[in-house]
From TrEMBL:
Transmembrane segments: none
InterPro entries referenced in this protein's UniProt entry, alphabetically: CheY-like_superfamily, NreC/VraR/RcsB-like_REC, Sig_transdc_resp-reg_C-effctor, Sig_transdc_resp-reg_receiver, Tscrpt_reg_LuxR_C, WalR-like
Protein name as annotated: DNA-binding response regulator, NarL/FixJ family
Keyword hit for Phosphoprotein: yes
Organism: Janthinobacterium psychrotolerans
Domain HTH luxR-type, residue spans: 143-208
Entry annotated with the keyword Ribosomal protein: no
Modified residues (4-aspartylphosphate): 62
Keywords: DNA-binding, Phosphoprotein
MF term (GO), any: DNA binding
Residues in Response regulatory domain copies: 11-127
């Protein structure tokens, strides 16, 4: 007697600017017999378009893509589709990077060096309606100090500090006075609890803030 399978496959879309990574991830997921690939995107704009058109159960989103990156794409999708389940895949584990991704509406945050079994656990978790953070990241977020309270101008100046610019050069590039630059730098040092410009850059780099500046 023929019995029809009642197994429902989980639909996925994969967004990554590296074709081999997309192909490898798709092959591994489909080899389990539990997933069906609806589409692939090479950047954030394509990911947004594919999600709106295909409505996958899960969208696997690379954080760092040219143009519209994973965090911005996640934010825009979630604004239109609050129920969207989006997992951010990233090489960055700084608390500010993770915080921005989760604030944008990501359902999960997974490091790219994670084993395949962890990806499956992450997908199962978000399908069940829960948030997922890679091991160790929850503690980092819990101990997070509020570097995200840096203003847009402070983020801009922090990025200039990281390149070794002098106060005068920063003032010229930013179109503000040297005194204003010093004021912003003092605010940055206070907010990051840093004793010097060099320490501020080091702390910001460790926490992933320079990728966001």
């Amino acid at each position: 007697m023929h019995t029809e399978s009642t197994t429902t496959l989980t639909t996925i879309v994969i967004a990554d600017d590296h074709p081999l990574i997309r192909a490898g991830m798709a092959s591994l997921l489909q080899s389990t017999g539990s997933f069906v690939l609806l589409g692939q995107a090479a950047d954030g704009e394509q990911a947004i378009e594919l999600y709106q058109r295909l409505r996958p159960a899960v969208l696997l989103m690379d954080m760092s893509m040219p143009g519209c990156g994973g965090v911005e794409a996640t934010r825009r999708i979630r604004q239109q589709h609050p129920q969207a389940r989006i997992i951010i895949l990233s090489a960055h584990e700084g608390d500010e990077v993770v915080h921005r991704a989760m604030q944008a509406g990501a359902s999960g945050y997974l490091l790219k060096n994670a084993p395949f079994a962890e990806l499956l656990d992450c997908i199962a978790c978000v399908l069940a309606g829960r948030k997922y953070l890679a091991p160790g990241l929850s503690a980092k977020l819990a101990g997070r100090v509020h570097g995200s309270d840096l203003s847009t101008r402070e983020h801009e100046i922090l990025a200039h500090l990281a390149t070794g610019m002098s106060n005068k050069l920063i003032a010229r590039v930013a179109g503000i006075g040297v005194g204003t630059v010093k004021f912003h730098i003092n605010n940055i040092l206070a907010k990051l609890d840093a004793a010097s410009r060099t320490e501020a850059v080091m702390l910001a780099s460790r926490r992933g803030m320079l990728q966001l500046a």
